[in-house]
Specification:
Blueprint lengths: L14 H19 L6 H8 L1 E4 L4 E5 L5 H13 L8 H7 L9 H6 L4 E7 L2 E9 L2 E7 L8 H15 L4 E6 L4 H6 L3 E9 L5 E10 L4
């Protein structure tokens, strides 16, 4: 299961982190300013994309119109989980008690977080969100899991961080995803309680990864 718990980043006293975030947003906004509105989508796809050759995984910056689909993937990914680590009540709370997609929360999160989506045959198959050095969420639709999409999204996140001069990244992983991140070179720091948006507490694993510089 390629996913990390959706969580809001609490403010941290990282002055350099804030500066880096502003720099990142400046890079994205520069693309928008250089192209007229009817060409923004194409410009972003050309300037901000990654293609993984083995499975031809295409990654692009998420757009506001993707929010509904990302919500659907979020719900489907959690509904497919067994009750191995979390109870049904916890899994239901994790997907905000929703059975139908609603992009409202994702649209709100897009104001602060960077979202990338994986696309295959014009269909969004997964997505990730992050802020500078922290991977906040990672979800792949159950039908497309096991095809390297989650790995591609995490690899891209790490590369974006490395390009900004960051040497260590962090994430808060669900217990389902801990092994996935370990295989990608992350180290488990500690188990900790995590409060979902709905107020339910679930155990998670705090993890980090040292980035190698070329």
């Amino acid at each position: 299961m390629d996913n990390a718990l959706p969580m809001r980043c609490s403010p941290r006293n990282f002055t350099s982190r804030q500066r880096t975030l502003l720099l990142y947003h400046h890079r994205i906004n520069s693309v928008i300013r250089l192209h007229p509105p009817n060409k923004i989508q194409g410009a972003l796809r050309i300037t901000n994309r990654t293609i993984m050759s083995d499975h031809k995984i295409f990654l692009r910056l998420a757009e506001e119109t993707d929010a509904w689909v990302m919500s659907a993937i979020h719900i489907a990914a959690i509904k497919a989980l067994p009750t191995t680590f979390y109870t049904r009540k916890q899994l239901l709370a994790w997907r905000n008690y929703r059975d139908k997609p609603n992009g409202k929360n994702i649209l709100q999160n897009m104001q602060a977080e960077i979202f990338w989506v994986a696309v295959e045959n014009n269909l969004i198959t997964g997505f990730a969100s992050f802020m500078v050095d922290e991977l906040i969420a990672l979800y792949v639709h159950p039908y497309y899991q096991g095809q390297g999409i989650g790995r591609a999204l995490v690899t891209h996140f790490c590369q974006e961080a490395a390009d900004l001069g960051i040497n260590q990244v962090i994430t808060t992983a669900s217990l389902y995803a801990e092994g996935f991140y370990l295989r990608l070179g992350f180290t488990a720091i500690k188990r900790a309680p995590h409060q979902l948006r709905t107020g339910i507490i679930v155990p998670v694993t705090k993890m980090s990864k040292i980035l190698t510089t070329a």
